[in-house]
Design brief:
Blueprint lengths: L5 H6 L20 H9 L2 H6 L1 H9 L9 E2 L8 H4 L3 E4 L3 E4 L6 H6 L10 H13 L4 E6 L1 H10 L7 H9 L1 H25 L3 E6 L7 H20 L5 E5 L6 H7 L3 E3 L6 H8 L4 E6 L8 H15 L5 E5 L9 H14 L3
Parallel strand pairs: 1-4, 4-5, 5-6, 6-7, 7-8, 8-9
Antiparallel strand pairs: 2-3
Helix pairs in contact: 4-7, 8-9, 8-10, 9-10, 10-11, 11-12, 14-15
The chain binds coproporphyrinogen III.
């Protein structure tokens, strides 16, 4: 049973007595409890064992978050689709056989979430029994997932991805279509299992210009968002370095639009439209500053949002390893106090 629904109310732009806060990647290496579990288990084991995923999801909640986010990773669907990967030490994700040709794309399976991702749905059911705040489910967006599949791992310039996008637009469209359908089914399944809201992570889409976004990405993202929004569950549409894309992302959909810290809130919200909620946007590196400086920056974010209904406080991107836990806690408390109506 949800006792604190401020996060959901803010998604719907309903009044709240204080601004709700959660932080992307709020479970992770900056917490000693997480590092202790990681000494015994790999990241994939944590994700694939519902009892452990539950435990990790709960860890950051002692810091006063107003929402929980399911502990999983955006890459998990790639394995059952036929593209196994690992998290190599110091390198990030590595896809064993990158997807580069028409034959590679044709071989990808459009799975049903209960085949191969049942452990995520089990974790959601366990988490829902334990928490009294809303649970956020999530998936990677097609472009961001495609970039890992095609590059074979992380990338700076996405040249191999763009080579396919520009050079073989039909192969690209098949790849994006398959990813979009898996993500659509997966988000529906997470909502069926109990997720109260979902976030679509299009972390790297800011590397495209407006015209390419419209042509190569928007139809796929829009298909997912518009379909999921019919469920009546809030959908958060997130990207980074998307200052130039806010209008086309808005068109694509989302109950809530994520703003990263490069976009001033007043301007970003105006361009997204005050008929949508926004989430963001403290620079994650500000949490490494002296505590009072971090708190000052958090208050600045709140002042910019001006207590207008429909602001969810978050970072502009995920929390970084090495972030001092006490600063996170101080910022959460400051958000609650400073925004009290
Ligand atoms: O927010 C949360 O607390 C929920 C859990 C979560 C994880 N990954 C766990 C994780 C979420 C929401 C993600 C999303 C994710 N995963 C994204 C989108 C968000 C973003 O940051 O833009 C992306 C791009 C990924 C892919 C991925 N997974 C990368 C690039 C890495 C980093 C690899 C590294 O070595 O740093 C991961 C690993 C990962 N996923 C960790 C966690 C807590 C790192 C921790 C570990 O090794 O234990």
């Amino acid at each position: 049973m949800i006792e604190n629904d401020r996060f959901l109310r803010a998604c719907r732009r309903e009044p709240v007595d204080y601004t709700p806060v959660w932080m992307m990647r709020q479970a992770g290496r900056y917490m000693a409890e997480y590092r202790a579990l990681r000494e015994k288990h790999t990241l994939i084991e944590l994700c694939k064992t519902p009892e452990l995923a539950l435990q990790v999801t709960l860890q950051p909640l002692r810091l006063g978050m107003d929402a929980a986010i399911l502990f999983a990773d955006i890459l998990l669907p790639l394995e059952p689709m036929g593209a196994p990967f690992e998290f190599a030490k110091g390198e990030g994700p590595v896809i064993h056989k990158p997807v580069r040709s028409k034959a590679d794309v044709d071989a990808l399976r459009v799975i049903e979430p209960h085949e191969g991702l049942g452990y995520v749905l089990e974790a959601i059911k366990l988490i829902k029994k334990e928490i009294k705040i809303p649970l956020i489910g999530f998936a990677g967006a097609p472009f961001t997932l495609a970039s890992y599949l095609v590059e074979g791992g992380k990338s700076k310039a996405f040249e191999t991805t763009k080579k396919m996008m520009y050079g073989e637009p039909e192969v690209w469209s098949t790849l994006m279509g398959k990813l979009a359908e898996v993500v659509r089914r997966y988000l529906h399944a997470q909502i069926d299992a109990g997720a109260d809201a979902v976030q679509l992570f299009d972390s790297w889409v800011g590397n495209l210009d407006v015209d390419d976004y419209r042509e190569f990405v928007q139809p796929h993202v829009s298909g997912i968002l518009k379909d999921i929004e019919k469920r009546g569950v809030p959908v958060i549409h997130f990207g980074t370095s998307t200052h130039h894309l806010l209008e086309v992302q808005r068109e694509a959909g989302g109950t809530v639009l994520g703003l990263d810290w490069r976009t001033p809130i007043e301007e970003g919200w105006k361009r997204v439209g005050h008929d949508r909620a926004i989430q963001g946007n403290l620079d994650p590196t500000v949490l490494f500053a002296p505590r009072e400086v971090a708190v000052k920056h958090a208050k600045r974010v709140l002042d910019a949002a001006g207590n207008r209904p429909g602001h969810i406080f978050n970072l502009g991107h995920g929390i970084l390893p090495g972030t001092p836990v006490e600063t996170v806690q101080a910022v959460v408390e400051a958000v609650h106090e400073h925004s009290r109506r």
